[in-house]
Design goal:
With about 450 residues, the chain is α/β, with parallel strands linked by helices. It has helices at about 5-20, 25-35, 45-55, 70-85, 155-170, 210-220, 230-235, 250-265, 275-280, 280-285, 315-325, 345-350, 365-375, 385-390, 400-410, 420-425; strands at about 60-65, 90-95, 105, 115-125, 135-140, 145-155, 180-190, 190-195, 240-245, 270, 295-300, 335-340, 355-360. It folds into 4 domains: about 10-35, no CATH class; about 45-170, no CATH class; about 180-360, P-loop containing nucleotide triphosphate hydrolases (Rossmann fold, 3-Layer(aba) Sandwich), CATH 3.40.50; about 365-455, Helicase, Ruva Protein, domain 3. It binds adenosine-5'-diphosphate and magnesium ion.
């Protein structure tokens, strides 16, 4: 005896039941199927959702579309969420199509939890909520079609356009939780991601530079602050590029962080890492449109740009230059780049109409080195003559001086003598790795006699 196989028999039975079933029974079975985890079969397309709620047929439907980079979309999602909350009892949320349910994404705002923001969904806003006319907003953050689209009756297209412009304006206002913050750009999965930078409180007081250099920095900052409106009203433009050059360890990164910290609040800073400079520079400048006045920091561009190769081709340089040229048309975008070796930069990147100001940070002189020593060791109240130690640390960069101090504190704790400090400087133990020929001056043949040491 062979029992008929279960599959075909069950199928035949369901077919038979369905054929004989009333509409009501079929509907009940469908709902049961959904409850048991089948894909919903009722999800309608955004167009169907919109025509249904707006009460127009599809030939009367108008789409007002914005296509933007990831972070822009997430910020728009946040703004959409504010409207969802505000009109909660009246709005209707629908599927983004393809049988998918509405989904939420996240917007990284630094401290605390990321904000949940609409990722993929369509929302119906009745007349009198977002505009006089009823509208639907479709948001879709899938990376191949990132869009924020307002669907309306053709007759309400103008209102939809006004609303879109309004949303884009709000992105540049304090409603954008990223506005005025210090952000970091990196590449993830081939696309640019922008997140909030974990605090980097860099202060002027921590960076010892010759006075005239600070004056130059102030002139640069004035184009973003005190002189901004005047420049603008005179049609002189506020868009400036600053190139900070100098050998490794002289405080270039520290300086751009000071600039970012001083502009925080009024300017959004985007710190670009090497990958984002190399692969997504155009996207990066496109994202900067999301934040109102923006400072783009390109640290160590020489690592990324360098010279054109033999064939005269350097795609990241080409992208970089065209991004920089493109952005010059825009108000309120500042670019600050740093390089260890301006000579290695292609001359095209240095041309003065790309960077209006080139600032070269020198190796610290003895007075600067003494001030660095004093800043870090002063609080310990040791019997150390900072001027003498600074003299001995000839040819040391600011970073070198800090490393010597760090190593000494690691070895000796909070109490040590001037000679112990100098021994560590001489020993080279403070160098984590031999670094492109940067050494302290060769140990002088005990030029500093112990007798002279204040600790003797
Ligand atoms: N002139 C200086 N005064 C105080 N600290 C300095 C100075 N130059 C460098 N440093 C310190 O050395 C470290 C490395 O500096 P960084 O800005 O990264 O150098 P760069 O980017 O030029 O290689 C930082 O901790 C910085 O604060
Ligand atoms: Mg640096």
């Amino acid at each position: 005896m062979h029992a008929p196989s279960a599959g075909p028999r069950a199928a035949a039975t369901i077919d038979a039941i369905l054929a004989a079933a009333s509409d009501e029974t079929r509907e009940t079975l469908r709902v049961l199927g959904e409850l048991l985890g089948n894909e919903p079969t009722t999800a309608i397309s955004p167009t169907q959702f919109a025509t249904r709620h707006l009460g127009v047929d599809s030939t009367q439907l108008a789409a007002t579309k914005y296509v933007g980079p990831t972070t822009s979309l997430a910020v728009l999602g946040h703004l959409l969420r504010l409207e969802l909350d505000r009109h909660a009892p009246q709005v209707v949320i629908g599927s983004p199509g393809d049988g998918q349910p509405p989904t939420w994404s996240q917007l990284d705002v630094g401290a605390g939890e990321p904000l949940p923001v609409p990722g993929r969904m369509i929302v119906f806003f009745p007349a009198g909520t977002l505009a006089d006319a009823p509208l639907c907003i479709l948001i879709n953050d899938r990376h191949w079609e990132r869009e924020f689209t307002i669907l309306s009756a053709a007759a309400a297209k103008e209102a939809a356009e006004r609303l879109l412009a309004d949303f884009r304006g709000r992105m540049k206002s304090s409603l954008n939780p990223l506005r005025g913050r210090v952000l970091e750009a990196r590449v993830d999965d081939g696309s640019l991601r922008i997140g909030v930078s974990p605090g980097l409180a860099a202060e002027r007081a921590g960076l010892m530079l010759p006075g005239p250099l600070w004056a130059e920095v102030d002139v640069f900052l004035a184009s973003a602050t005190t002189r901004r409106d005047l420049l603008r009203s005179l049609g002189l433009g506020t868009n400036r590029g600053l190139l900070v050059a100098g050998p490794p360890g002289v405080g270039k990164t520290h300086l751009v962080r000071v600039i970012a910290a001083e502009l925080a609040g009024s300017y959004t800073t985007i710190l670009a890492d090497a990958n984002s400079m190399r692969h997504t520079i155009a996207d990066l400048y496109a994202e900067s449109d999301t934040f109102g006045p923006t400072l783009v920091v390109l640290d160590d561009i020489d690592l990324v740009l360098g010279h054109r190769d033999g064939s005269g081709h350097n795609s990241s340089l080409a992208d970089f230059l065209s991004a920089l040229d493109g952005v010059r048309q825009r108000e309120d975008i500042l670019t600050v780049a740093t390089t260890n070796d301006p000579g290695s930069l292609d001359p095209a990147a240095q041309r003065s109409n790309r960077f209006d100001t080139v600032l070269t940070l020198p190796m610290p002189d003895a007075a600067c080195r003494a001030r660095i020593l004093e800043r870090h060791l002063g609080p310990l109240g040791l019997a150390i003559n900072f001027t003498d130690v600074a003299e001995a640390l000839e040819a040391a960069s600011g970073a070198d001086v800090k490393e010597v101090i760090r190593r000494t504190v690691l070895e000796h704790g909070e109490s040590f003598t001037q000679d112990q400090l100098l021994d560590i400087a001489d020993s080279g133990r403070w160098q984590a790795a031999v670094d492109r020929g940067r050494y302290l001056a060769p140990p002088p043949p005990r030029r500093r006699s112990r007798a002279k040491g204040v600790d003797a």
